[in-house]
């Protein structure tokens, strides 16, 4: 049994032709596998509590050494690369939906964070960054009208 991914992006004319569907499936599904340089954008959840910000980046199948995290001038940059590794055993891929290649996500940080206290961990395919806030700085200021 072969499972085919439903693609709602097909126009009505293309939906009518099963032959066109098969052509697109076999011509486009494997085009991404053989590209050496490709990019993708992993999904990121950003949460805030009273004491910290927390970013969770969904990047399964990577190693800790595949990531680079920098903070420069109040900008957090998370980058990395997921490589497609074909093993020696013969396999015929019918579909590859996992994204491979390099990625970079950037976030402007507020002024009230402790840049030197940022912690990162990677577990179960989630890169988690904990960014503590400074207690003294307050970003909200009420301005009195004169």
What does this structure look like?
It comes from Marivirga lumbricoides. Residues 39-144 form the CS domain. The structure is a single chain. The protein has 146 residues and is mostly beta strands. The protein has a domain at 39-85 and 96-132: Immunoglobulin-like (Sandwich), CATH 2.60.40. It has two helices and seven strands. The strands form two sheets. It has a four-stranded antiparallel β-sheet with strand order 1-2-7-6, with no helix packed on it. Strands 3-4-5 form a three-stranded antiparallel β-sheet, with no helix packed on it. Strand 3 (67-72) and strand 4 form a beta hairpin. The protein is elongated and about 75 Å long. Mean pLDDT is 78; it is low at 32-37.
């Amino acid at each position: 049994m072969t499972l085919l991914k439903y693609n709602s992006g097909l126009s009505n004319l293309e939906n009518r032709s099963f032959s066109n569907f098969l052509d697109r499936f076999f011509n486009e599904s494997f085009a991404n596998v053989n590209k050496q340089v490709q990019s993708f954008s992993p999904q990121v959840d950003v949460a805030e509590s009273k004491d910290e910000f927390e970013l969770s980046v969904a990047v399964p199948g990577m190693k800790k050494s595949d990531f680079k995290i920098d903070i420069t001038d109040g900008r957090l940059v998370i980058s990395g690369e997921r490589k497609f590794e074909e093993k020696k055993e013969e396999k015929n891929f019918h579909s590859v939906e996992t994204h491979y290649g390099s990625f970079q996500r950037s976030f402007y940080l507020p002024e009230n964070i402790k840049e030197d206290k940022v912690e990162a961990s990677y577990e179960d395919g989630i890169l988690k960054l904990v960014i503590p806030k400074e207690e003294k700085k307050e970003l909200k200021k009420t301005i009195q009208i004169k």
